[in-house]
Structures are given as structure tokens and as C-alpha cells.
Amino acid sequence: MKLTTSEALVRWLLAQRSETLAGDEVPLFPGVFAIFGHGNVLGIGTALSRYRDELPVWRGHTEQGMALAATGFAKAADRRQVGVVTSSIGPGALNMVTAAGVAHANRLPLLLLPGDTFVSRAPDPVLQQIEPFGDATATVNDAFRAVSRYFDRITRPEQLISTLPQVARVLTDPAEAGPVTLALPQDVQAETFDFPDSLFEPVVHRVRRIRPDTRELAAAAAALRASDRPLLVLGGGVRYSGAGARALDFASRYGIPVVETTAGRTLVPHDHPLYGGPLGVTGSSSANALAAEADLVFAVGTRLQDFTTASWTVFGPGVKLVTLNAARFDAVKHGALAVVGDAEAGLSELDLGDWRVSSSWSGRAASERARWDAHVSSLRSASGEPTYAQVVGVVNDLSSPDDYVMTASGGLPGELIGGWRGSGQVSMDVEYGFSCMGYELAGAWGAAMALPDRVVTTLLGDGSYLMLNSELFSAAFAGHPFVAVVCDNDGYAVIARLQEGQGGEPFNNQYADCRTSHADPPRVDFAGHAEALGCLVFRASSVSELRSAYARAREASVSSRRPAVVVIRTRPDAWTESGAWWEVGVPESLAGREGYEAGKAAQIRYA
């Protein structure tokens, strides 16, 4: 059929279906986020308009915010559905690069359709064209190459026929999942071609369960049976595989203590007798104590990022590392004994016979976690100005098991990862692969779209709010409710903590330490600002007031179909500490250099 490039692309999007973890069939691409400009309004914009009843289009207010919303959507959909974002050329396109980095670092599918300059070059130089002096083929969209799993520039309509199967492959492959960028020159968007009907036949994409090699399984089984103090580490791959129950069954069968990474958080019920807590810098002293004594670490579905491994100091010397991962890239890291395969399939086929861990080691999980729980409870019950730990405690207490809680940057990831007590239903998104300020609000918009029957709550600091808040209005306008709890502590408190904790002088992080010509600088009225963006607003100045405000915000947000923003002042100097080390470069002139050198001395180096 004769179609424009844009029409063919939209019709292909509509034909793609996906199977959820529950086995339901849903659209692979359930909607498009769009801001139109001269690089996409007449091409892809016209095509989207013609199919608007079949493929919803949501209007955002920053391209970065829309792409972050699409990323949050994919995470909340367990990578079974993919958000699509289109932009104009130039600054509109470049605004999405940061979000592509978020999706890339977190292994989340995202389809970006930035407009591009003319292939014909007849009108060059056009508005927003950068004209690189040494490469006539380069445009701003080449910036996406470093943060895309798959990149293509469509210079002829028929190129869609060969590239679209690759697009679907990357977006639905558990080992390859990440952002895909199709740069669309504006003249090519409008060109026509006789596309084959077969390109638009419905396809159901079922996520592949890669079965592990039997020899790798045998080697892993032998290593586990030879260990005395094994530790099971569950990452995001367990979540996306739907293998949480399988992992707990595996742990229970053999008595292996279980800990979670950031991306694997809330896979394990908090009161499970084998649960040792979250691992690493933003985790718990309980999980870290187990890690220090383990003689074997079995890491499933995780890339073992530095916050999880405490920059490779959380494990004891001589520990054996065994991995199970769908991506061979991640499985072979750090000289691990690698098993390449799906978490559900791999754990179901890994048979350790009648071997079982000693009860003394199995019992350490509950005893260590009890000490951590007592510590967190003491932080939640402290008096004085509200702390992050208390904010998290209030939200935790008032949330239902199927609620969804989020954060991304600053000090709140440590509070949410370390302090949250989950029910075992996946209910958390802490974006700590890229730690992108601004994800908290935009990602919550996407999560609310993916989870219309669940309450989504996002927690963020004043710095993140000021970084990117425009999608509050996008969500309010579109009718997608969620609750945002904004903690105002006068600046970038967690970076001030890092700066001053290593012996640096307070400088340019808290507002009190920033340059200004005012004796009494202005303050932001976050409640007034959120209200101006169409949100419901609730103020709190104490923990008891927060409890009431948050409860009312939950109800009001759902009934009004708008975001509800709760604003509370919090202390800038109170944190939930796991005691783990994190490597940052410390100059010799600072007091923290001694601790840095001690950490480096304890750092494990793998092949």
C-alpha cells in the first residue's frame, strides 16, 4: 500500500502487540508522547493525527520530561510495553538525550523519533541545523548514538522494511533492552513508497526466556554445593523475568539468605525469614554484614553497580562470584562463574540435590535484619524537625501492598531503599542507574499511565523539583493522578553531605552557602507553584501533619484525576546510614583522604 514514511511507521506501531507477565495481550506501543515543531509536525504529526483514535498521543511540555515519562512507563510495565516520543529537530531532539541515558543505564526500552534535517540538503542551512564543519552527514541526532542500543537514520522510506524488525528485537529482548533512536529527516517523513502489506500484519512479541547452558548450570551447582555461607542477590532481571516467587522458592529450598539490589527492591517480603535486607551503600547494615561473611555470592539479574557492591568493598576477600543473567555482557563481569540465561528458567533448572545451608547461616538473615529494623524504627520515631526517614515511614505506613513508590536522586534513594518495608509485590522504582534529577515527577507521570488502578507516590527534594517540574501540568491536564511528596531542605543537601563529610568546606550546595546579592534571599513557594500547575496541594510542618496530609492527598488525587503535591520542610542533615564505603575522588588536602585510602586498600579487584 502506498503510504508516507510516517504513515507506514505509525501503522507498524499499531500492529505490534506484547504479552505481559500475567499472559495478557496488550499493545506493545500503547501511546506516543509528542511536542511538535517544524521537524515533525507535518510528517509524523499528520500520521499520528490520522490514527489518533487507535494510538493515543499525549502532549508534554519538555522533550526530556516526556522521554523520562516514557521510561517510567516502561519500568512500571515491567518492560512489556514501550513508550514512544517524537520531537522536532535541533534543541527538541537534544532535550531527549539525557532521558536516553536514563533508559540505557537502567536497561529500559524506549523508542525515540526525533526529527532531522533534510536529506536532500536543498534548503541548507535550515533553522536549528548545526552544520558540523568536518562532517556533512552529521546532525545533532548523532548525539544519540552513545546512549542508544540501536540507532538508524531513515534516508529512504523503504529502509523501514529492514530496520523495524531490528527495532522490535532490541525493545523486546531481555538482554538488549534499551533505547532505540530512529532519526527521521523531515523531507523523508513525507515521502511515499509502496510498502508490503506484510509489514503491517499483527505480531505478538513474547519476551524470550533464554535457557542456560547445561554445562554452565552444572558448574554453578558445584560451586554452590561447595560453599558454606552462600548469599543470593536479586536484581532487576528477576523482576523483569517475573521470577520473584521462583527465587524465594530456590532460597527456601536450600536455606540461602537473600538480599536485594536497588532494581530488585521489593521482590522479597520484608518479614521473610531468609531476607537480609537491601545491599550496599544505600542498603542496610544487615545485608552488608551478610555480604562481608559470605564465601559465595550468587548474583541473579544484576549488573552489580557500585552502590550495590560498595565500590567492591562489601564482599569479603576470597569470595566466589556466580552470576545468572540474560545478558552475557553482565554475566561475565568481574571474573564471575557465569550462567547466561533467564532468571526464571535458570533458577528452575538449577538443582542442588539434597544439599542445604547450615541453619546457623540461614538464621543470620533474620537476626541481622532485626537489628537493622530496630535502627530504622528508632529513626522513624525521632523527635524534632521531620527527617527523610520519617517521611518514608509515613508513606510506607499508609500505602497499600499494591501501591507504587518512586524516587531517583539526592538523599531519598538511600532512605527508600534502606528503610522501605515491602510485602513482596513489586512496588518500587528507584532510578539509581543514572540518578537523574527530574525523573521523579516525569517518571511518575509515566508510571501513573501504566498503573491506572494503583496509587503512585513519588518522593523528591526541592532540588529535583526545581530541575524539572513541567510535567506536573502535563499529568494534571491529561488526567493522570499521582502523589508527589516534596521535601524542602534548602538545596542539594546530599551533595553538601558528601562535600562536608570528606572535609570540604560548605560551598554552593545549600542556599546558605551560595552566592547572592540579597541579605534575605527569596524562597520558593513550592505549594503555590504546584497549585499554579493545576495540582492539588497539601502542606505539612510535622510528622503528624504529614500523615494527615498524605492520607488526604491519596484520596483527592484519585477522585480528581490530578497530581496531588504534599510539601514538607525536612532536616538537611539526618540520614539513614548503611555504613558502607563509596569511592569518590578525594584530594589529599581533605580530611577524607585517609578514609579514601583505607577503602581503596579493602577494594576487591577481579579479573
From TrEMBL:
Q: Where is the Thiamine pyrophosphate enzyme TPP-binding domain?
A: 431-567
Database matches in SUPFAM superfamilies: DHS-like NAD/FAD-binding domain (SSF52467), Thiamin diphosphate-binding fold (THDP-binding) (SSF52518)
**Is the keyword Hydrolase assigned to this protein?**
yes
**Any one of the GO BP annotations:** L-valine biosynthetic process
**This protein's GO CC annotations:** acetolactate synthase complex
Give GO terms: molecular function aspect only.
acetolactate synthase activity; flavin adenine dinucleotide binding; hydrolase activity, acting on acid carbon-carbon bonds, in ketonic substances; magnesium ion binding; thiamine pyrophosphate binding
* Stretches assigned to the Thiamine pyrophosphate enzyme central domain: 217-350
The Thiamine pyrophosphate enzyme N-terminal TPP-binding domain is annotated at 46-128
Mind telling me which Gene3D superfamilies this protein's record contains? Answer: 3.40.50.970, TPP-binding domain
Q: Which key words tag this protein in UniProt?
A: Hydrolase, Thiamine pyrophosphate
Alphabetized NCBIfam families for the sequence:
myo_inos_iolD
- Family the entry assigns: Belongs to the TPP enzyme family.
Q: Which PANTHER family match?
A: 3D-(3,5_4)-TRIHYDROXYCYCLOHEXANE-1,2-DIONE HYDROLASE (PTHR18968:SF9), THIAMINE PYROPHOSPHATE ENZYMES (PTHR18968)
Put simply, this protein is called 3D-(3,5/4)-trihydroxycyclohexane-1,2-dione acylhydrolase (Decyclizing)
Organism this protein belongs to:
Amycolatopsis albispora
